[in-house]
Fold:
Amino acid sequence: MTNDTLFIGQNYIDGAWRDGDTLLETFNPSDLDEQVGRYSKASPADIEQAMDAAHRALPAWRGYNMQARADLLRKVGDLLIERSASIGRLLAREEGKTLPDAIGETIRAAQCFHFYAGEVLRNPGQWHDSMRDGHNIIVSHEPVGVVATITPWNFPIALPAWKLAAALAYGNSVVLKPSSFVPAAAIMLVRLLDEIGVPKGVVNLVLGDGRIAGDIMIDSADALTFTGGTETGRAVLQRSALSMTKVQLELGGKNPLIVLDDADMDLAVSIAANGAWIQTGQRCTGTERFIVGDKVHDEFVERVAKEAKAYRVGHALDADTQIGPVATAPQFRANLEFIASAKAEGADLIAGGCEVECRTRGLYLAPTLFANTRNDMQLNRHESFGPIAAVIKVQDLDEAISVANDCDFALSAGIATQNLRAAEQFRSSSKAGMVMVNAPTAGLEYHVPLGGRAPSGFGPRETGTASAAFFTEMKTAYINHGVI
Ligand code: NAD
Structure:
């Protein structure tokens, strides 16, 4: 028994919390008998009102005092840290990641607000001499406008946070639609923005089904920042083309880790296991393909399988849990189907591949490893987005890089090697947007660009100062001083 209460969430439109027209419920993936949240979905009319409110609020927010804007963002970060234990617990109950991961994610959300509080004061333009006497040229960066913000379920607070913090820092207004599977943490974030006095209409939140909400938002927004699956990304890109809405898409991955024969095997096994199974494999940058040199192949398979089997899978709130449940029932079913089809196409199941019994009725899946697989198997072509990895044996570095790049995704890629020349060859020839040397394919920092190349990403990068390319528009002004 705990004191956890039912979380009731509403839509936040033009500075007011409002019920919508239909109900949405969430259940704890660690314990399906526990309802976590009850929400009301925004109607299409509500979503239109949220977009209108964001458009109305934009001019005043663009002109809002810089220091006051920076102070607001910093305060959000401070309060997120102060409340990270309670928000993290709610997040762990609704998404299923372990409590330390959920608290850590909340603190990461806070750090993003702190970072962008600084960026409010650092949005420099350029001054140029002109080819014409008596003229000069100023290039300034203006807010892009109303930003539709659509997020997935796997980082329920960090993702809304790094998008909102950047949008607000550069003077934009926002309509946020979090995933319907895990909306509580995003609502907590918006409650906090409301509490500290962000002007009404600057941030709006709507809960709803992806396509219906998405279409309305895209049609009316100046820009769309979207994180989710690649197929959904294609759909939103098509829709955005009609209204010419500027897009930033962060999409799926099928990330490889190359383990060369000269790798430090302790390190290689540890980064492989971390990349594949931590957070139940539900990180877009998680490792799904291990590409391993033939001389170390057998040792690697044996040792990494041992790691997979040693993980304690369990309730997200239990202190000894290392891997929580799969976050949603559809995802759990998809993971089981993925495993069944991998077996059917001839991959050898080395570890996991089955449900795990725990003290509660949850969506528990054992960390899973396949070996003796080929890169052309479906197992190695499609993103599982679960705790499932496969080993592919290769002869040398050239073959390893070619297999790593022979993939429909290009998000993150890693190599374990002690050879600097091999590391550099991999770094420069990988087609992934993010490349890791002797580090897990997952685990990103918020002060540098995040993103993949198509079809893992499309448009300007997010996080760090790179996000200015998306959240601002350049204006070039030619000034003739000669007549003034
Ligand atoms: P999803 O694509 O199903 O949903 C993402 C969001 O889009 C949700 O809010 C959903 O309601 C909304 N949506 C669905 N259909 C829509 C439509 N037609 N128009 C507009 N919005 C729509 O993704 P998911 O299952 O929530 O998340 C998992 C996926 O996200 C994985 O593929 C993962 O790799 C990816 N992801 C990528 C990154 C990254 O930075 N590249 C980060 C996290 C997750």
Summary: The chain has a mean pLDDT of 97. The first helix runs from residue 44 to 62.
